[in-house]
Amino acid sequence: MRIRTLWVWGALALASMAPGKLSGQVAWETPRMLGPHSPGGFGVYWLRAGTLPNDGDVVLVTWAAPGLPDGVSLRGGAGKGAGNEVAGFGGIDLNTPIAMHSEGQPVDLSWHTGVGLGYGQYLLVTVPLGLSAGRAWSSGAVWAAPYASVGVALDLHMGGDAPDEEFDLGPSADLGLDLSLDGNRRFVLRAAVSLGDRQALAVGGSFRTGR
Fold first, then answer.
1. For residue 66, which phi and psi values (nearest 5 degrees)?
2. Is the dihedral of CA 28, 33, 35, 41 positive or negative?
3. In the chain, what are the domain boundaries?
C-alpha cells in the first residue's frame, strides 16, 4: 500500500507542474470535489474558475437527487467564462469506493468519473477519470475528511470558435477538505482546489437532504 500511496502523491505533483494548454470554456468538472468521504445531499458553492486567464466567478450547485444510485450526483452552474462570456455547464458524477483503510493501508480510496458539458464561447464536452485518497477523523461533534485526487480529463471542443485541436487529454489534480461541526453532519463545509492545467477554487457547503 505504501507504493500505491507514493504513486498517488507522485502523480499529484506531476499534474500540478504540467503546463497549461486548455483553451475554451469553464470546465464543468473542475474541481472534482469527490473524495472517499465526500457528502451527498444538496451543495452550493462559489467557484473561481481559472482554466483560462479571463475565467471568473461561477455559482456551482451539486445534488445527490433522491432516486439516483449511490455515488451518483448531478452538478451544474453558471458564471463568467473565457473572454468575459456568460458560461453555463452541467454534468453527472459517479464516485465509487475502492478500498477502506486498514493496518497495512493508511488511506481510503475511491475512483470517480462522469460526463458533462460547458457552453460559452463554444461547446466543451468533458469525460473525467480519477482516483481519490483520503481519511476521515472525528472528535466529538467535529468531523474532518481531507483528500487528494489525481486523474485525467478528455475534452471535446465543438463550435466555430473552438480550438483547432478537437480532442485534448490532460492531467487533473485536486486537494480538498470536508469539515462538519455538527455531530449528525447535516451541514458540511467544503473546499477544494484544482492544480495544473485545470486550475480552480471552490468553497461552500453541502446540506443533507435525507440520503
1. -55, 140
2. negative
3. 2-207
Q: Residue for cell digits 475512483?
A: 111
What CATH number should be reported for the domain whose range is 2-207? 2.40.128
End-to-end CA distance of the chain: 32
For the record, the C-alpha cell of 61 comes out as 450547485
> What H or E segment, with its residue span, contains residue 192?
strand 187-195
- Residue 205 CB partners (closer than 8 Å, separation 6+): 43, 44, 45, 187, 188, 189, 190
In whole angstroms, what is the distance from residue 34 CA to residue 76 CA?
A: 15
Fill in the DSSP letter of residue 2. Answer: H
Q: What is the 3-state secondary structure (H, E, C) of 163-190?
A: CCCCEEEEEEEEEEEEEECCCCCCEEEE
pLDDT digits (tens, 9 = 90+) for 111-169: 999 999 988 878 889 999 999 999 999 999 999 999 999 999 999 988 877 777 789 89
Render the burial of 124-159: b for 16+ CB within 10 Å, e for the rest.
Answer: bbbbbebbbbbbbeeeeeebbbbbbbbbebebebee
Task: Check pLDDT > 60 for residue 2.
Answer: no
Question: What does the alpha-carbon distance between residue 109 and residue 147 come to, in Å, rounded to a whole number?
Answer: 9
